[in-house]
Specification:
Blueprint lengths: L12 E6 L9 E6 H5 L3 E7 L5 H13 L1 H6 L4 E6 L3 H11 L6 E4 L4 H6 L2 E4 L5 E4 L2 E6 L2 E7 L10 H8 L1
Parallel strand pairs: 3-4, 4-5
Antiparallel strand pairs: 1-2, 1-5, 3-8, 6-7, 8-9
Length: 168
């Protein structure tokens, strides 16, 4: 079942590679419940088919990094990049893209949460396995306020400017 605007985000766990140890977060991969992360917050989420892939690295992630301050001014508490990769890959991609403090790089390594969102994309024939559709979502206190799913091979509606307009 595909989620839609007005639905609650599904339960699930995402992992994040933590670079600096803090209270409650150890170095390396840390697991977080989506319901805990979204409670009381406004989240700008975008999902990509894969870390280090061409459109994701050249356009999608850089747009959110460049306009992170504008999203925060629009009331967004956190910006999430979700991909069906492991936390080590997401951490490395985030370092390479300079996201520190701007975008949380959240891994859905087995695509469990992506499937719960109804956003899985089978790229097995291309040697990539099950991945995520390219999409963006505005989430407020666990409720999806806007959902922008791309058509296959496109990058037209999940960009930062679309989500920024919806967050304002």
């Amino acid at each position: 079942m595909t989620v839609k605007a007005g639905d609650r985000v599904p339960e699930g766990t995402l992992t994040e590679f933590i670079e600096t140890e803090t209270e409650g977060c150890t170095l390396g991969p840390n697991a977080f419940k989506v319901s805990d992360l979204t409670r009381g917050k406004k989240i700008a989420l975008f999902a990509v088919p894969g870390a280090f892939t061409p459109t994701c690295s050249a356009k999608h992630l850089p747009g959110f990094v460049q306009k992170a301050d504008a999203l925060r001014q629009a009331g967004v508490d956190e910006i999430w990049c979700v991909s069906v990769n492991d936390a080590f890959v997401m951490g490395a991609w985030g370092r390479e893209q300079g996201v520190a403090g701007k975008v949380r790089m959240l891994a859905d390594g087995s695509a469990d949460w992506t499937r719960a969102m109804g956003q899985e994309l089978d790229l097995t024939a291309r040697g990539m396995g099950v991945r995520s559709q390219r999409y963006s979502a505005l989430i407020e206190d666990g409720v999806i306020k806007a959902l922008n799913v791309e058509q296959a091979g496109k990058f037209e509606v999940s960009d930062v400017d679309t989500l920024l307009g919806q967050a304002a």
